[in-house]
Structures are given as C-alpha cells and as structure tokens.
Amino acid sequence: MDPMISPIASRADAEAADAADALAPIRERFAVPEAIYLDGNSLGALPAGVASAMAEAVNQAWGQDLIASWNDHGWWTLPGRVGNTIGALIGAAPGQVMCGDSTSVQLFQALVGLSRANPGRPVLAVDAGDFPTDRYITDSVARLLGLTVERVDPNRFVPDGRTAVVAFSAVNFATGELRDLAGITDAVHAAGGLMCWDLAHAAGALPLDVDGLGADAAVGCTYKYLCGGPGSPAFLYVAERHHPSLDLPLAGWHGHAEPFAMADRYRPAAGIERARVGTPPILSMIATEAALTVWEGVSLSDVRAKSLALTDLIVTFADGHLSPFGVEVVTPREHHRRGSQVALRVPHAFELSRALIARGVIGDFRPPDVLRLGVAPLYLRHSQVWDAMEILAGVLAANEHLDAVFARRGGAVT
Amino acid sequence: MDPMISPIASRADAEAADAADALAPIRERFAVPEAIYLDGNSLGALPAGVASAMAEAVNQAWGQDLIASWNDHGWWTLPGRVGNTIGALIGAAPGQVMCGDSTSVQLFQALVGLSRANPGRPVLAVDAGDFPTDRYITDSVARLLGLTVERVDPNRFVPDGRTAVVAFSAVNFATGELRDLAGITDAVHAAGGLMCWDLAHAAGALPLDVDGLGADAAVGCTYKYLCGGPGSPAFLYVAERHHPSLDLPLAGWHGHAEPFAMADRYRPAAGIERARVGTPPILSMIATEAALTVWEGVSLSDVRAKSLALTDLIVTFADGHLSPFGVEVVTPREHHRRGSQVALRVPHAFELSRALIARGVIGDFRPPDVLRLGVAPLYLRHSQVWDAMEILAGVLAANEHLDAVFARRGGAVT
C-alpha cells in the first residue's frame, strides 16, 4: 500500500475516516441494507429513487400510456441515454456506449465486430483466469469465425502479428487484481491487434478512461458497483473511429438505420445506435436509469481514494490479526494492481462465508477457497468494514464456521 | 368467416356478446387503460398484480435481501419457471422453453442451433414478408455459418434436399395472416429440414401446440398478447429430442452444466437450461412472471373464439361501412388463416392512426398504408371494438385525419 497514508488500524481510526469522508452524503441516496454488505461487487445496493421510478413506469407508462410511451416516456431513446450516462463513468465521450442485453451477449458482439475489423489475423487472446463467460464466449466466437483462442496470463502476454483481438478483464473477478490497462492496450496496438476490456468489476469502482486508453471496445455489467439492479442490462462501448465499419452479428431491427421503414435488408444505423439489437427490457433499464442518478456529482477520484482506504483496512487487518487462522491475502498489495475488493484465501471459505452471513456480514465465496470482500465506496462506512473484520476474526477464533464443516461431513456438531 | 356464427352487426349484438362472454371476468385481472386499446399486438395491457410484485422485488428482494435473493426469492430458477409458464400457453411440455434475452437474440440462438443440427444442407429459408428482425438475423446467421438465405412466400414454399432450416412467423405482423403451421412443418420435415416458428404474434392469441406440430424450435416475445410488459424477455422453445446435441452460439456462463464451478471449458447444462446465456434482466422477468398469472385457468379455445368474433366484427363493419372511404381488408377472411388482428389498407393510414388516438382509439400504423387493429380477448369488450369502428367511420366521414395530411404538406388546415 501507499506508504504516505496511514492505514486504518482501529475502530477510532475508522470513525475518524467516516467523519472526514467526502462521500458520506452519497450514502443517503441509497436504501442501505441492514447487513454490512461486502458484496456490492456482485450486486450493488438499491438506490432510493428506484422504487418510485418503477411504480411510475408500471402504473402510468405501461398501464395507461402503453405504446405511446415509446415516445412520450422516452423508451425509444432509453438505451442510448443510459449508455451515455455509463459512458461518463468510464471515460467515454457521448455517442460511444449502448446499454442493453447481458455482458455475455455484448462481449459476443464486441469480439465478432472487432475480429471483422482486423481480418487476416488468426488469434483471439483471452485471460486464462478470466470470468467463465469471457472464456466461453471467446471460444464460441473463434469457432464461428474460424479463429484460434489463446488463453494467456495478462501480466506476461506478448501480442504479435497473429493477434486479432485481445479480451481481458480490467479487474479479475476472483483475485481483485487490476491490470495495467494502458500498458496492455498500447502493447496490443503496437502489435496491430485490437483491445476489448471487460469492465464488469471496474466500472464504478475506480476512474476509467476508455477514450484516453485508446481501447477499441469495452463491455461490462451495470449491476455491480454501478448499482443498476439485479440483472440490469449490460453495456457495449465501441470507439468512434470504428463506427463507420462496425459490423455486428446480432443485426436486430432496433439497430437498423430506419427501423420503422421495415426495409428489405439490414442497413446499420450510424454510430453506436447500430449496437442496438431487439426490444430491450424496458422496466429493468428504467430501474438502471433511475439508479445511475446516485452518481451525479460523484468524483471517481474520491471513490478510488475511499476504496483503497477500505481495502487497505482489510489487508492490514488480515495481515495483523487473521494470519494465525491460515488467512492469506490474495489480492495484490500494490494500489495500482488492486481493484475494489480483497480476496482472502482461507480454509473452509464456503462455510466461513455462510457463518458471516449469519452474523450480518455479507461477502461471498469463490471456489475453491476464496472469501471475496468487495467494497462499494458510495454506501459503505469505514467503521462498517472495521466491524466486519472484527466479526470475521471472532468467527475464526471461535471456529463457528467449522460447525457447518463437521455437519456436512456427518461428524458431531461442536 | 365461419357461416355458422352470425357476426356482430350492431352495438346491441356487441352488448349481448359481452353479456355472454366467458372471458369477461378475466378483464378484472388488468389495470385496463382508459382508451379503447387495439394495440395489444404491440404491447399488452398491464396486469393488475404487476405493481405490487415489482415493489416487493425492488424494496425487499433487491433492497434488503440482495444477493441472497438468487436463492431466497428464486431469481436463479426464474427463467426456467417463466419458460414453463409460457410453454403451457404454446403447447410445450415442461422443460423445453427458456425465457430470456430478446426475440432477435433467441432467433439467432435457434437458427445457429438448428443449422448445426442439420449439417450439409446449404439453405436457410425465411419469409420474404416477415418482420424485419427475422430476415436480418437469418441473413447474419447464414453469413456466419456459410449458408445461403432464400426469401420465400410461406404459402408457396416447397422445401427440398438443400433446406437446412426454415424460419417463418406463425402470424404475419403486418397482414395478420395465420400460416398453415401443421402443413408447413410436415412439408419441411418430409424434405429433411428443421422448422423454427416465430410466435411473436401468435402466443397468447390462439391455441398453439408446438409439441403436437413437431416443431423443432420456436421463439417469441412476451410483451404482446402475453402481456409481459414493455420489452419483457423473449422465449426459446427447443423440442426435447434436440436437447442432447443442441449446440448454441451464445455460450454464456448461466447455461453451463456447473455455472459456479467456473470450469475451464464450456459444458452445456442438460436440457433447455443450456439455453440460458448471461445474467437475465431480473426485474423485467419478475414483472413478466407476475403478469403471466392473468392466464391462470384461461381456455385458449375461449380466447380464440372471442378473438374471431372480434376480428369478424371488424371485417364485417369494414365491408359494410368503410369501403366507400377506400378501406380494404388485407387480413384473410378465412378463420384458419387469420390471427388476432385485422389489417386495413387505407389511404393516409398514418394520419388516420393519429386521428384515432386523438379520439381515444389506439391502433397502429405499418408502412406504407396499413392501419393495424389488434384484439386482445382477455381485456377487450365486444362493445369497445364496436365503438372503435364507429369512431373510425366517423373520422373517415368527417375527413378528420386529412387535417394532418394537409398540415404535413404545408397546405391550409381545413
């Protein structure tokens, strides 16, 4: 961690950090859950404005105004509007991000589109340790296009003249490792390849600058740090320079240049509008649009500073108090290599995650042995994270989680 | 029309039909719009139970229970549950329908999956007059798989040994023509082809029996006659006999045999679960699940009988009262060739649709000259349809819609 900042090492430190927290007022924008919620990297908390937006969308827009709502309630322009809002949070100038579908579908679109934009090169490179859907979709795209997939370690990957497209996640879902976004993007470009970043665990967690990076495409979900709701629609960013020739496989009618002309042949719309596919899930997307208002006026530098203070707290506490229980910090200790979560390797991590839930601390388990603690700076307090770590230490000291281990093995419950 | 049934030819006839309507109580399950809504073939009306289901989903499941809701509120099993509910309405035994994504995406899945199941045949056949997305997606699939698309007239189409997959809509979106589902399916099978039906304008509009037909796949949206909400997730039916070898292109992690094992390679789940892709739009799908409860105990034979009574009313009225205004009935007059809408060809159809909206009658316009009047038997009254036709006659007689035509041309407003 950064040696210039003293880590939070007591509850008093945590309370002092809360008192000085520039983001403290943002917490009021949420219907904060009663538990200490360290799983915002899986599903973000509920912004307070969503419920009324949904009631309006259901009762008035759907119930009374019906099809007129495509114009009168802005349903038709919703995907692009939400896309631009997301774009502002990932460093994309307007007109380059479209909201819709799932991350899996958007990655399929991006990889086919970029592969077609870089013909004559046989290889798609994907992180061997990436989230499963990234690997599976890359395999499927390669098969459809007659390409080869290479599964690589992003930290050691050397692109070459065979590299068509590289798809890495900015932050690894399991370890929380943040990649060298600029260095990798530059190396891929230097070799003549195109770069697609999966921002699922990065968007809303730290400042991003997809335009500045020169990324060719990016995808991500909106239900983690962005707090867009369960299964909220994903997004696709494609850099403007690729738009004129962008050739996407899911040629649905919403992406047509004249969707209501019902033309004989597909002719893609100008710009990122061509990344629309079919009719989007309006209610989910309205929830996302309402949810994203929590980001108004929020500085992502403040988010990043608080995120690092919170993950530093976890790392320092684990080093100081949890190593006797076999707990090992998996997430890189260097700030520039860390996202907004800490992965702790610990025996019986699954049972530990269950025991913590019983004590009101929500983290999650990733096989085989990782307890994943995500920190969402918009609504978490430093003192909550401190309390969570003390509870974790208490569970480990009392072996509470081993009851479940013994029960599962058919042994006596202690 | 069926000569055994006297068509409704007066408001008194319509009121008598309302009094005898077996579906009249079902109307109480809806938050019925104030207008006379003849566009349920575009977006179905709001079922009354949706608002409370959404409030619960937002405030409790998302807001408080958060990730635990994947189990505790049944989010994980939601797509298959909704799929089975849809299945019951289209004649599919359980375990063959998955809910998710858009119709465009589901059609992409179906066409790639069926093409791979029928290798060595070069042709995909699609209705030349089908809804645009069906034609565009078929073209895209053919391009990816190295196949050829033939655009045909479903009523004259003769499949042959080159036919891999045929994709037709059961009911044409523009004309309302219902195809010969059994005859076409049998002919395609006799030639060794596979049949995919797009049920967007058929599901919930008439009895369907995809299992009995022997259809290989079917897709459809849920926001028209099924009343699942704006942009509600679509569905994919694949006949069970194809499941063991079903090879879908969107190999997202939700369709994996062990999604949480995070396995190195994609291994599809057994059965229709492999048709899951990424994280689905939970809020939209919860709305759909709540909405579909309006179908409980509804006989689709009753739906069909009322639908034909209502479309007969429109056809009879148009023949008797509207032909002097140049109105022509496009939709087939034979019941076995008619879906649940009537398309009227009429000069200045766009302006006419706007003038009707101003008078509280919601239909829609399809270029170049069609006024489309859809009838949704669950919530429409015979007397409403009668009134709509009288209003339509009044607008035409007074030339109300021509004001807009003149205004658009820069002429004097009469």
Could you walk me through the main structural features you see in this protein, from its secondary elements to its overall organization?
The longest helix of chain A is centred in the last third of the chain and has 23 residues. In chain A, the strands form four sheets. The first copy, chain A, has a seven-stranded mixed β-sheet, with helices on both faces. The first copy, chain A, has a four-stranded antiparallel β-sheet with strand order 11-12-15-14, covered by helices on one side. Helices cover 37% and strands 14% of the residues of chain A. Chain A is of the alpha/beta class and 414 residues long. The first copy, chain A, contains 13 helices and 15 strands. In chain A, helix 8 links the parallel strand 8 and strand 9. In chain A, helix 2 packs antiparallel against helix 9. Chains A and B meet through helix 2, helix 5, helix 6 and helix 9 of A and helix 2, helix 5, helix 6 and helix 9 of B.
